Amino acid sequence: MNTRSLIAALVLLVAALGAGAQEQAFTNRATDLKDKADGATVRSLPENTEVKVLQRAGGWTQVEAGGQKGYVRVFHLRFPATAEAGSSGSSLSSLGSALGLGRQRSQSTTIATTGIRGLSQEDLKNASPDGAALQRMHSFRSDAPGAERFAREGKLSAHTVDYSEGGRR
Fold first, then answer.
1. pLDDT tens by residue, 109-154
2. CA distances to 58, 92, 98, 141 from 115, in Å
3. I want to staple 89 with a disulfide (CB 3.0 to 4.6 A). Which of 42, 83, 110, 130 is the partner?
C-alpha cells in the first residue's frame, strides 16, 4: 500500500469512528420529550419518531428530535444497528469492507440492544429516603390468605423452578 492510500485509509477510519459518536434511534411507542430527566414535558413524540442520541444517563437518554433537545426514557427507544453475518460489526470491519479488503458479506441483519447500569457509589451516597413513597409501597402489600385468594380467582397455579448455579449471584 503506498503512502497516499495509507493516508486515505486513515482519514476514512477516523471519519468512520467519529460517525458513531451520535447514534440514531426511534421511539418504540408514543412518549414525552422532557426538559430534563423526570422533568416537565416539552412535547409529545409519536411512535417511530427518529431521534439523534446525544447522551445516555441511566434510565434516561438525551436526544434531539426535530431540532429540539430533551430527554426520553431509554426503554421508549429502539436502537437499530446493522450487523453483517459472520462479522463483529465493528467500524474497522465496516471500513475494511468499504475499502474492498477481506471477504464480501451479502447477508445483513438488524439488531437492537438496550442496557441500563445500576446505581453508582455516588448515587448511593447522595440518596435520601422518601417516606411517602415507602408508605405507598407498603399499601400494596398482601398477606398470605389474600395472595392465595388472588391466585385462585386468577386461576394461577404453582410451579417449582430449579435455579442453576450459573444464574445465581
1. 555 555 666 777 787 788 888 889 989 998 888 899 998 998 999 9
2. 9, 24, 30, 30
3. 83
Q: What is the SS3 assignment for 141?
A: coil
Q: What is the pLDDT of residues 66-80, one digit of tens each?
A: 999 999 998 899 887
Whole-prediction pTM: 0.42
Q: Which of 116, 46, 118 is nearest to 74 (CA)?
A: 116
Domains annotated on the chain, with CATH: 24-78 (2.30.30.40), 122-153 (no CATH)
How many Å is the Cα radius of gyration of the chain?
24
Pick from 126, 33, 104: nearest CA to 71: 33
- Tell me the C-alpha distance between 35 and 108, whole Å: 37
